[in-house]
Amino acid sequence: MKVGIPKEMINNESRVGMTPAGVFELVKNNHTVYVQSGAGNGSGFLNIDYQQAGAIVLDTIGQVYAMSDMIVKVKEPVKEEYAYVQRGQIVFTYFHFASSEVLAEAMIDRKGVCIAYETVEDEDGSLPLLTPMSEVAGRMAIQQGAKYLEKPEKGRGVLLGGVPGVAPGRVLVLGAGVVGIQAAKMAAGLGAHVTILDINMKRLRYVNDVMPSHVVTEFSNEFNIRKHIKDHDLIVGGILLKGAKAPKIITRDMLKDMRPGTVIVDVAVDQGGCVETTRPTTHENPVYIVDDVVHYCVTNMPGAVPHTSTMALTNVTLPYVVKLANLGWERACQKDASLQKGLNIVKGKVIRKEILEAFKWQALDD
């Protein structure tokens, strides 16, 4: 199979779909790999690294799409890329269709085979291709939140770890999934007081067992959310509904109960956000302020640490890429139930009901 690795076009997205090590494995399996010139520069991988691994470097993104049976990316295609997607071409990447009707319509129109990293699901319900980026984003949420709590960034002027004689900052984590646990771990490591909310008691019991005593758990409901937003300095949104939009559990009217300079880091922004006032931002302009509350809602947070993120992503995607290349998407999905759940839109047909529900569409074959 011919596999293409284009350069990402999203603002300040420096990750790349595959490392040279991944290219080496594909070439070893007798596949041809095309890499767009400069695609790996931001992650620290040069053209020569890919060439030495066996890739063919092409000048333009158009050439990569035109010559490839499968495209392996990091983020969803942007508007300028839509026309490059060919009928029947596999596009393997993060799509998050439920948060973008325009993207979903474009991929239906292009009739490609859209396999989304974020919905590939193991038997135990875990999301193996989403997990590493959730780990990165959860840890970064505290790193960025601590920065924007500083007064020059319009935050409350709070040091999360505190100092002797001064109480530490308070962090509220919404969701005890991968993002939430990584955020809580980082915040606790800094010495902050952490409250983590979830509706899954098994997850809360797990957190209670593995976290230090200054990480406390409570059941998530509107009463408890309204109570805690009043005295917490940093709020991390880590809510995930597989393949669907995140619920808005913090509403606009709740902002007035937060102290001026409170910081919200909505990691769920890729899924539409779990805060009503969330809107997508970029690393170039990462924050905005609503009712004196600082919002950090960057859609590609792991893109700020591309070397780490690209290697972590390739570690988990490569086995699936090799399987798709070796068998083709139909046989690969027949043999691998986890990969089959990654099918979102296939040759113009919406496969996942969450996409239909997000936009109140009827099934296309009704």
Automatic annotation (TrEMBL):
PROSITE patterns: ALADH_PNT_2 (PS00837). It comes from the Bacteria. InterPro entries: Ala_DH, Ala_DH/PNT_CS2, AlaDH/PNT_N, AlaDH/PNT_NAD(H)-bd, NAD(P)-bd_dom_sf. Residues 4-137 form the Alanine dehydrogenase/pyridine nucleotide transhydrogenase N-terminal domain. Residues 149-297 form the Alanine dehydrogenase/pyridine nucleotide transhydrogenase NAD(H)-binding domain. Substrate binds at R15, K75. SUPFAM superfamilies: Formate/glycerate dehydrogenase catalytic domain-like, NAD(P)-binding Rossmann-fold domains. Its EC number is 1.4.1.1. The keyword Endoplasmic reticulum does not apply. The active site is at H96, D270. Coiled coil: none annotated. NAD(+) binds at residues 134, 198, 203, 220, 239-240, 267-270, 279, 298-301. Keywords: NAD, Nucleotide-binding, Oxidoreductase. One of its GO terms (biological process) is L-alanine catabolic process. One of its GO terms (molecular function) is nucleotide binding. GO terms for cellular component: plasma membrane. It catalyses: L-alanine + NAD(+) + H2O = pyruvate + NH4(+) + NADH + H(+). NCBIfam families: alaDH. PANTHER family: ALANINE DEHYDROGENASE. Belongs to the AlaDH/PNT family. This is Alanine dehydrogenase. It comes from Arenibacter troitsensis.
